[in-house]
Amino acid sequence: MEQKFSKNTLFNFFSGNASPMQKKAIEEWLEEDSNREWFFEWLKEWENEHPQFLADTDLAYERFKVNLKTGSRKKEVRLLHTPPQRNIKAWMVAASVLLLLTCSAWFLKDAILYKTYTTAFGEIKSITLEDNSQVALNANSSLRVPRFSFGYGDREVYLKGEAEFSITHTPTHQKFIVTTPNQLSVEVLGTKFIVYSRPRGSKVILQTGKVRVSNASNESLTIAPGDMVSLDQKGALQKQLVQGVEKYAAWKDKRFIFDRTSLKEITYLIEENFGVKVSIPDTALANRSISGTFQANNVEEMLEMLSDVSGLQVTEQDKVYILNASE
């Protein structure tokens, strides 16, 4: 990420005091995706230092919609001077500022409103949210967090993939809500839990505290530590008691705990966490189960472990790993 402009230069830009030459240079700088995070981080800091300025939201939003349709450049943004207060809708300030730019609809919407944390295959990321809640984001996952409104009212985040949450209880008892692509919703005040949401299913495992889990039909269940709730094929909630909830978060330490886990299930885990395809042509072999705790930092170590434990022969063909019984 190239830091071409000083913080003071961008603060002048946010305040409407930048020169035409500076505005042009900043616009060109923002054409690079990698520079935009600097822009939004400093925009947020500027907004925190200038809470007395509140965007004329009706005017800003109308101009915002026009710009999405036409991509036209706007020269002015009108601000209303209000008594000092925290600007809960500070994203409108961002929208107003960015009306000076010619940007895509995605940039003007998602990049303004949300900060998105992502992990690559094989990567695990530790995240501290503004309320000091901790999130461990598993490989091949993303977490979307509101940039400006987080901490005002409900604290709502959007997860795609898998993560462990350790939520801080706030003095005002604000709810913390995790939503997923299939409309699974987890609502808590302060607790520790794991959410798994991938194309082949969704589940919530509670480690401590108490949470309420809801689905798209507004069916809800309140669960206790040791409970796991999953969505069945019809989208209904199914609850069961599980033993050893710690195994569901072992991935944080690059560990995999199997308890009579089928090789077929393990191939799914490999594809989700390491991004490679694994095939087991023999159905009987795919249904063979293994148990134990194993350490694997990459797909090669995982496949080597499977080969040693289960006596498998591993070959690679057209970027697909094929598992067969050793002869």
From TrEMBL:
Gene Ontology MF, one: sigma factor antagonist activity
Pfam name, any one: FecR_C
Domain spans labelled Protein FecR C-terminal: 255-322
Organism domain of life: Bacteria
Residue span(s) of domain FecR protein: 116-212
Protein's recorded name: DUF4974 domain-containing protein
Originating species: Rhodocytophaga rosea
The organism's taxonomic lineage, starting at the top: Bacteria, Pseudomonadati, Bacteroidota, Cytophagia, Cytophagales
